[in-house]
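Consider this pair:
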Amino acid sequence: MSAIGSTYSGLFVYTDCANIGTECVAGFGNGGSTDDYNLNVAVANGTTYYIVISTWATPQSTTYTLDITEVLCAEPTDLLASTTGLDTVDVTWTAGDSETEWTYEYGVSPYAQGDGGTSGTVITTSSLSLSALTPGETYDIYVQSDCGGTTSSYVTTSWTQPVIGATCETAIDVAALPYSTSDDTANYGDNYSASPGATGCGTTNNYLNGDDVVYVYTATADATINIAMSAIGSTYSGLFVYTDCANIGTECVAGFGNGGSTNDYNLEVSVTNGTTYYIVISTWATPQSTTYTLDITENTCVNAEATYTVVEDCANTQFSVNVDVTSLGTATSVTVSDDQGSADVQVSATGIVSFGPYASGTTVNYTILNDQDASCEIMDQLHVAVLQLMMNVLMPRF
């Protein structure tokens, strides 16, 4: 069908008048388009076929040009490209008729058939695997039927190879510690969405809605590692750790959402020898992406532990915080500090130290530093999350 005058035209093929409205041999509805279209129909000797042209009123009618020709070599159908790795893809199709041989040609998009891409010799199966492709590159492939003396016209499809780091399955390998890199999540696209998980993530807000990048690290010993984010370019960034790709969006080993801050933050994660960990960095869009520096180091000590209690003073629109140091780890003393200018407090035994008062709505970060080993430093994420929640209540995010 060509020169179609109206939208919502349709062409349908039957083998019996009684089948009209019940069962087609082939058919097509053009929707809201007036583009040309065609059908390839396998016919049997001696069989009568009825071709019905109509419209989904309105419009009530359409002008058209109808051409019916014998196809000496039918085009393949259902051409599909499915990536199987960073540099590999499987291409499949369905025979258009009884042909058993095909040729193909592909190149970097935008690629037009005949422009000197990679050509394949005649193959006898309706599938092929391509390799040595470039991660992140988009390709166009053309496939035609070879009917022995005649060939069909080409059919085409496009696909894009995955980017290293864009998904858990193609995560960036952290081969050894210490590890450091600076990057931008905008380089990896948006492949995950919604909450990082219901448990263990430090937040259930939609911190996977922005662009995402994934790193993978396999522990070589039972240890504690420090995963630190700095030089953060956007607010509402988050970092989340998983032990299985299937857990992304459901369950974290550890995690943190930075709220409306661009302050540095870090996570202490206990790792088990031989276990693989996946580290996802994303944002609660907007913003869609963030620049960052990621540092991963193995601790040479066991960190201190603490819990935090907010002491409200609503009458004076302020609050204080009781920091309960429940373990010194391997330290003989630690220094507890905040980022609001309070005096540092050295602690040599478990117990409670108080900080504040702070004005209501203030976001406070606490650091606990091992005085004997500066590599053992933690910033408490739980307390930041509590205070950020308070701030969101006082000053809602629209």
Remarks:
- The chain is about 5% helix and 40% strand.
- The two ends are 52 Å apart (CA to CA).
- The chain has four domains: 1-70, 77-160, 168-298, 305-394.
- The helical segments are 381-394.
